[in-house]
Amino acid sequence: MRGAPVAILALLVGCVAPSDVDDPLADVSELGVLSFDATGRTPPIDLGEPSEATFLLARSDDDTCFALEPSLFAARGAALDAVGAAPSRYQRIRCSTGTPLREPLADALEVSVLERDQVTAGRLPVRFVVTERSALRGDSAAQQAMLEALRSELAEAGIAPELTAVVEVEGAPTETRFSDLETDELDALLALAPAPAPGTVDVVFAGCLRRVGPTGLSSAVLGFTGRVGGGGGGTADAVFLPGIRCGAIGADLAPVDVERTAHVLAHELGHFLGLAHTDGGDDIMHTNPLLEGAHGFTSEQARRMRLHPFVRSR
Ligand SMILES: [Zn+2]
Predict the structure, then answer these.
(1) How far is the CA of 258 from the centre of ligand 1 (A)?
(2) In what order do the strands lie in the sheet with 65-69?
(3) pTM tops 0.70, yes or no
């Protein structure tokens, strides 16, 4: 249907759930349930004058992929996005290709709004999920060293990682293949561990990780985040790091280079907390964080990360 857009106001439909201080996503205001029209888009969402600390949380079933315009960070199952100044709407996405899907779907998205407080010094709860495919397994000294190295990577950004638990799991495959929105094998890895406490980032130390690109060719990755642009729901909702060199004879565990792994982990957490890659920048969000000079977060990146609801005030 064309014509005047239907504005969905933030003044709303009611507050969900009693405020739960332990779950940063519990204290949200429901905006309503949206449908995708024949162009695969929802009506615009008019939040009035959103602050830069306004987030939208959208939930669908796990077969539905979508992205908030104009950022278009695609999501499957759920998405948490910082809202820009412009009115936004959701676009349906084809899960297999990541391209827009111009087909209607009724009552597909449950959308809520969340207002964040500015955090100048934050803490970020993380949980390590260590599979038998990682040399970190059973090595609590190396696990602690990883946390310390991560702490120094994030210190300048004003974020202190807090290791809430280490879960050692069994049953992980030597190799895990996935594309950005086809994440069954990553979800199967996550399912080896019990659900984390709300608002905790899972860091999975897996086996060889192969990302399948749009052409069908796969390549080994140094790390993968289930959703660039902001984790906090949806499928593969975690950061994944490899513990085996893909293609190594006998699939030997890679020795853990703590500094290098923590550096890649900090880059992936940047994605989880809302950052995209920088074009040719000399910060850690460069496409290849291992390049010389790809170090540290800019103050703007740090501020964006601290807005993410998983970053609590300390
Ligand atoms: Zn990246």
Answers:
(1) 18
(2) 75-76, 65-69, 89-93
(3) yes
